[in-house]
Amino acid sequence: MHPKNEAFTDEKTLIRLLKSGDRQACAELVRRYSKRLYRVALRILGSPEEAEEALQEAFISACDKITSFREDSRLGTWLYRITTNAALMRLRRQKQEHVSLDEPVEGDEGTFYPRHLADWRFDPHQITLTQELREVLEHAIRQLPDTLRVVFILRELEGLSTAETAQALGISETATKVRLHRARLMLRELLAPYVTGEAGPAVTDASLSRQASKRA
């Protein structure tokens, strides 16, 4: 027994108990990380049902593979990677196409120039997010290519550092920075009409898709 979960207060102890097969440790793992991991899966998949399935797969995989965790990163970073992979696998099956975080993003070495050059800088933590703009932002995030979306979610919305994001996704820090930069530019392009008041009140995936297609 672990009275009041005292044995779980230290991450190293939690990892040791997980590796020993302690069931309560697995329950604590779920309790501690389920909310934030579900949020990531939901933003990747856009479906609560799919996100729940991905989360369940991620925790089962984590408990099965915990003995292979080398502890060269934080436990949370490792779990982000497992959850992201589980969500992307489900996304691949939905789209019937192969998407890999290890594949270079087309144009990674190039520069993306947004067409909207309004005098504002996209920063989800600084711009005033009304309820409507929050909905627009969530829709816009779903329009990003998968490789850019996951970087943006982990780095900007979940608050991981560049190094942690790179570790979670199994890519270099340079690639992480490039993808984050491109994601921010694309989101700036998608959100500019709403921030500058050029767009009407209706917000739909279709309307944002049409804007995204204009980038080509």
Structure in words:
The protein folds into two domains: 3-95, RNA polymerase sigma factor, region 2, helix turn helix motif (Rna Polymerase Sigma Factor, Chain: A); 131-213, Winged helix-like DNA-binding domain superfamily/Winged helix DNA-binding domain (Arc Repressor Mutant, subunit A, Orthogonal Bundle), CATH 1.10.10.10. Helix content is 63%, strand content 0%. It has helices at residues 11-19, 23-45, 48-65, 75-95, 131-143, 146-157, 162-169, 173-195, 205-213. Helix 1 packs across helix 2 (23-45) and helix 4 (75-95) packs across helix 7. It is elongated and about 55 Å long. The model is unreliable at 102-122 and 200-216 (pLDDT under 50).
Supply the CATH superfamily name of the largest domain: RNA polymerase sigma factor, region 2, helix turn helix motif
* Rg result: 19 Å
CATH-scheme architecture of the largest domain: Orthogonal Bundle
- Biggest sheet statistics: none
Q: How confident is the prediction overall: mean pLDDT?
A: 78
Oligomer: single chain
Number of domains: 2
Number of strands: 0
- H-E string: HHHHHHHHH
Q: What are the defining features of this structure?
A:
2 domains, Rna Polymerase Sigma Factor, Chain: A, mainly alpha, 216 residues
Put the structure in a nutshell:
The chain is mostly helical. Helix content is 63%, strand content 0%.
Itemize the secondary structure elements and their pairings.
Elements: H1 11-19, H2 23-45, H3 48-65, H4 75-95, H5 131-143, H6 146-157, H7 162-169, H8 173-195, H9 205-213
Helix pairs in contact: 1-2, 2-3, 2-4, 3-4, 4-7, 5-8, 5-9, 6-7, 6-8, 7-8
